[in-house]
Amino acid sequence: MYQLFNLWGLNSSFPPLSQFSLPFWVVATIVELVSISCARTVVAKGKELFLGELSLSYLSAAPAKVKAVADASVVRSGRNVTVIAVEFKMKKTRKLIYTGRTTFYNMPIAKL
């Protein structure tokens, strides 16, 4: 991560961010994968899912080497839309670190 700052021409004197917390793209990727898995439990197997919205909230900094638990739940599931909420908590203290919310649009099965 520190090398990327140097490539972009940003001079920074702080150590790599990955020592203090997970990079945003790692959290976003995990939220997306966990959300898809959770949405697949309520959406028919033949329907395609389209990610319409993904929002993340960073509530607390967590060291990169701390084990975290991701809990996903279906907030709303309808004919065309499925909304999933994901919470990340530190395994040891159960302190909430990140929350994510994804909205999936269910693509109808084409009948030819």
UniProtKB/TrEMBL annotation:
InterPro entries: ACOT13 (IPR039298), HotDog_dom_sf (IPR029069), Thioestr_dom (IPR006683). Residues 26-95 form the Thioesterase domain. It holds the Pfam family 4HBT. GO terms for molecular function: fatty acyl-CoA hydrolase activity. Belongs to the thioesterase PaaI family. This is Thioesterase domain-containing protein. It comes from Vitis rotundifolia (Muscadine grape).
